[in-house]
Amino acid sequence: MSAPSTRTSLSPAASFARRAAACSPSKANVAGLWELQEVAQRYGESKTILHPDLGRIDVDAQVLFTENRAQTLVVMTARPGTESQGKLELLSVIGRQQLTP
User: Fold this and answer.
1) Closest to 39 in 3D by CA, of 24, 58, 52, 20
2) What pLDDT, on the 0 to 100 scale, is given for residue 60?
């Protein structure tokens, strides 16, 4: 019969850091980077939306997180004075109406 488990519940970051450090001494740097939480966190980038009637709309996407990261909000805006901004303004007026007969 095996002894009862005495493991405590670790956060995902702590669990990863412990596993990475156990792999080899050279992996300890990965654990440190993970703790910085700079891994795979993109807060802003450019995206392209292809609208069936208006075509290409280039937007800047900003990712916002709640404090506990339970929810994410992506805010997409076009740069002022661009053709994409005009297309987004047109969409705010016409909504889901089709532009072709």
Assistant:
1) 20
2) 93
